Amino acid sequence: MTGIDVDLTAQAHASMPLTEALGMEVVTASQEEVHMRLAYEDRLCTAGGILHGGALMALADSAGAYCAFLNLPEGATGTATIESKTNFFRAVRDGHVDAIARPLHSGRTTIVVETDLRDAAGKHVARITQTQAVLMP
């Protein structure tokens, strides 16, 4: 796929093995925005060839966690999702899904991230807002 950052994808796979199992790839990653992609595959579908909502939520959670990690305060060791709210707008039946995660709040104890999912045609698939707990040693 064009635009995929192989090194960032390898890092995501090493730190979040589910991203590799599902075939997620990282396009770009910065404190301001994380862009990840999940290709449509039959093995990730429900009846009728629709990409499973759980696969979409895993993509959003992974992109959100990556974004939160990049915004950790000094001394923190990681994050953990403590709340996630998803609104689905449309089904995905082919192509791929792009996740764009952006921080809404980067605090000392929590980080709130909003992630938009869009299909290959750019149509809005879902919006996810999640709260990540900041883990300290």
How would you describe this protein?
The relative contact order is 0.19. The protein has one domain: Thiol Ester Dehydrase, Chain A, CATH 3.10.129. The longest helix is centred in the middle third of the chain and has 18 residues, at 53-70. The chain contains 3 helices and 6 strands. Strands 1-2-4-5-6-3 form a 6-stranded antiparallel β-sheet. It is α+β, with helices and mostly antiparallel strands and 137 residues long. Helix content is 25%, strand content 40%. The protein is globular and about 45 Å long.
Write the layout of secondary structure elements.
Layout lengths: L5 H10 L1 H6 L2 E5 L4 E6 L13 H18 L7 E11 L7 E11 L3 E10 L4 E12 L2
Antiparallel strand pairs: 1-2, 2-4, 3-6, 4-5, 5-6
Shape: globular
> What's the alpha carbon Rg, rounded to whole Å?
14 Å
CATH class label? Alpha Beta
* N-to-C order of helices and strands: HHEEHEEEE
| Structural class computed from helices and strand pairing | alpha+beta
Strand portion? 35-45%
Poorly predicted ranges: none
**Tell me about the biggest sheet?**
6 strands, antiparallel
Return the CATH topology. Answer: Thiol Ester Dehydrase, Chain A
CATH architecture: Roll
Number of DSSP helical runs: 3
Short key terms for the protein model shown above:
alpha+beta, 137 residues, globular, six-stranded antiparallel beta sheet, 25% helix, Thiol Ester Dehydrase, Chain A
